[in-house]
Each structure stands twice: as C-alpha cells, then as structure tokens.
Design goal:
Two copies of one chain form a homodimer. The first copy, chain A, is an alpha/beta fold. Chain A has two domains: about 70 residues, Winged helix-like DNA-binding domain superfamily/Winged helix DNA-binding domain (Arc Repressor Mutant, subunit A); about 110 residues, NAD(P)-binding Rossmann-like Domain (Rossmann fold, 3-Layer(aba) Sandwich), CATH 3.40.50.720. Chain A is built from nine helices and nine strands. A seven-stranded mixed sheet of chain A has the order 5-6-4-3-7-8-9, sandwiched between helices. In chain A, helix 1 runs antiparallel to helix 4. The first copy, chain A, is globular. At the A-B interface, helix 1, helix 5, strand 8, strand 9 and helix 9 of A face helix 1, helix 5, strand 8, strand 9 and helix 9 of B.
C-alpha cells in the first residue's frame, strides 16, 4: 500500500466500484472494459485507474478488468475481506432500520449487539437480537469481539454512547446522530450525514432553475 | 456564484459547517474565530476559507465569523433558505425511519407524500401521512408541489420508483436503494451509500493494527 492517506473520496468511489462490479457479476459478466465500468460508475476511466493505483496494479491492457478478481482485490485492500463485528447503540427508528437492513451482513458488517439505556427497550428482541443495557458494553465488546460501534441515539445522547463504546475498547465509531462528538486519537471516527446529499440536490436544482 | 462546479466535498463540508454553527448558536455563541470553527469541524481554517470563497466573502479579519450571519449565508448559497417538498417511495424499514426522522423538517426538507406499491401498505398511516399507491405520483407531485424524490425501495424496485418519479415531473432524486439507476440528464441524482463510512473505518482500523 502506498500510503495511509487514501483520500476519503477514493474510498467512497471504491464502495461504488464494488457495488457496480457485484451487479456485473450477478448478470454473469466476467470481464468488463474500463470504459464500461467507468460509465456504470458515473466517473471517467482515468479516475478509476488513479483510485486503484493506491492499492496496486489492476486491469489488463486491451481487455479490461476481471470482475471477480477486482472485487476480491478491492475488498482485500479495504480490509473488508473479513467480517467486522459491530455494536449498535440507540435502538430508535433509525437503529431499528439498520438492525433490519440486509446489506450489513452482505457487506461484511455484522451487527452482533444492540444497546440502549431505555429500561422499556431493554430485553426487547429485534431481528433475533435482545436489546441490552448500554452499561454492559464493556463485557459484551470482549465477549462478542466487537470492533466497530454504530451510534444511532438522539443527538444529546451521542457523546455518552461514544464514551461507553470507547471505555469498552471499541476501535472505530460510525456516528449517525446529528451531533459532533469528541473521541481520543486512536479511535477512528466517521460521521454519517446524509443531508449533504439533499443539500447537493437542492443546490443543483436551484442552480438549474436560475439558468432557465 | 463563481461556478456551478462546486466540488461535492465542499457541499458535504458546508453541511458540517451548518451543523457546527447551529451548535454554537444553541450554546449562545455569537462570534466564532476561524480557528475554533475549524477545530470543531475537524478541518483546517484555510479549507473553510476556500470552501466559503465559492459563494462570496465571509468573516471579519481579527474577529472571525458572525455565527447567525454565516448560517444564513451558507443556507442561501446552498438554496436551503426555502423549504423543499419531498416524496418518499418505498415504505419499508428505512423509509419508515426517514418518515419519522425529525431532522428532515428541521433542515427544510419536508416529506409530504409516502408512496408504495404494496397493496397491504396502501392506506396505512405513518407519522400522520397516508401511504399512497405509487401510480398516483403524477397527480400528487402536482397537487403537493413536490420537488425531490427519495427512493427507499429494495434494490430491484429502485429503477421503477425512479421512472414513476421522473414521469411525475420531479426535479431531483436521492436514491438510498443499493442499486444504480438511469435517469435523464435534467434530473439531479444523488446516491446515498453509508457503507463507505464503514469501509473507511475498517480500512483505517486494519491499517493501524498493521503498524502495531
């Protein structure tokens, strides 16, 4: 690997490449030209080459990419050739939707524990998983070998959820709550804010209207 | 506005700036130094200046940014100083979570219609909204003045949902379904794939482990 400083945009595009390549695979396509892959991913082929160059050399001149090989290589490069065990904290509407979301296990992120502070929720079973009190996180993280914490609490409880997860020895946090949180340097933190897609749509629609 | 080619990463960061500025506002902070804003947003201050420069001149030398003024300016620049009416297609787990998500109306994206093809769901009321058959989209888009379509169907139904929305005259589509879809050029399309945040976390955790 050339560098730990792989741009975030590259990792986001790699996610797209895997999705599109998986669609090609399902359709029975074994080899795909770089132009066809680029078109299906809505990027240009030099961008794909640049993104893949962080991880090694891929593709065969005059042929293109072997679909299965490229999926395997990207997954290995990203570290998703193994399963990652996740703890979800905050079993509200969004939490429940994620617990029921089939793509998680398909993509190698297995939600193995669901945690909440609400005594009315503790003991409830969602998707075959019993909701456990967040105070039990340290014991459960060890017992279940949990790597990544997923925060889906209301914003005002996000920091507390993060503290529980960090104290329990989790290595990374994906924060869906609309609140900034503080974590020590050794914890990898990602904010999920899907509103920026809405902002982008609003911005472009208004821009188009202003030109009409 | 200098250009329609505002990088996506800039728009994503503007979303973060608005969120952090709103937190400062709630705490009663009227003026914030560029260093403090940068730190709270986890970017450097020259990046903030660069992002804002697409839209005009902001900030007062030696003072920083006026919190409310900057929120107002960013919202106007992005086109979110008005409300946007949204149609949600696909009332499964994720669809329901979005219908109940309070941040939508807070951020100016009002979900005014919920659509599904499933006869068992049509007529059901979620969050005070009756689920309507997707075939009624053309009538409802006109009646309710809907601007943006939100697709939360299973992947295999995403293209059909998009076709309904496009036929109904929607201007932009936010696709949460894990499938690529085809839309005409005048429709602004955004894919929401929150798995790339998981990929990024997995990648960085493994990279850190490999250095230990």
């Amino acid at each position: 690997m050339k560098s730990e400083h792989i741009p975030k945009a590259t990792i986001a595009r790699l996610a797209t490449y895997i999705q599109v390549l998986s669609e090609f695979k399902r359709e029975g396509t074994d080899v795909v030209s770089s132009e066809r892959l680029a078109e299906a991913c809505s990027v240009n082929s030099s961008q794909i080459r640049k993104d893949l160059a962080y991880f090694g050399e891929f593709g065969v001149r005059g042929v293109g990419y072997y679909v299965q090989d490229l999926i395997t290589s990207i997954k290995r490069s990203l570290g998703i050739d193994r399963a990652w065990n996740c703890a979800l904290v905050g079993v509200g509407n969004l939490g429940r939707a994620l617990l029921r979301h089939r793509e998680f296990s398909r993509k190698g992120f297995i939600i193995r524990g669901a945690f909440d502070c609400d005594p009315y929720k503790i003991g409830e079973v969602v998707e075959g998983m019993e909701i456990v009190c967040s105070r039990q996180l340290p014991a459960k993280v060890k017992e279940l070998g949990l790597d990544i914490g997923v925060i889906t609490t209301p914003p005002e409880r996000a920091q507390r959820a993060a503290n529980y997860l960090i104290g329990a020895g989790i290595k990374g946090i994906i924060n869906f709550a609309p609140a900034r949180i503080a974590v020590p340097k050794h914890i990898h933190l990602e904010y999920v804010d899907f509103f920026h897609y809405f902002y982008a749509a609003a911005f472009h629609i208004r821009f188009d209207e202003s030109r009409d």
